[in-house]
TrEMBL record:
Pfam families in the record: DUF2255
Name of protein: DUF2255 family protein
UniProt lineage: Bacteria, Bacillati, Actinomycetota, Actinomycetes, Micromonosporales
The organism of origin for this protein: Luedemannella helvata
Amino acid sequence: MTAWTADELDDIGSVVEMRIAALRPDGTPRSSVIVWVVRVDDDLYVRSYRGADAAWFRGTRARAEGIIEIDDTIRDVAFVDETDPATNDRIDAAYRVKYRSHGAQYVDAMVTPEVRATTIKLVPR
């Protein structure tokens, strides 16, 4: 695995929404969905708004690889579970700051224990 470049961190970390899809066992992408992404230091994170039952999130469990798409750019990623409480606190704060204008009900949903348990770090591959 490699690291994100500074430009990638800036570009991906600044988008409001992006598309994400897990790969099937045969390597083809599942249907993509729109997610919110946050940057904390030199890492990028996503969470499943619908919790662990969301189809896209379940797909990440089957194979910890996928793609993200921003505009016309597609990037291969690995999905790494983020379970560290201190890191998740910082991710909560990043969601609250970045998405505060989208409505408290949506932001509050992104920091519930159920959704927080779906935190995935995106690692370029």
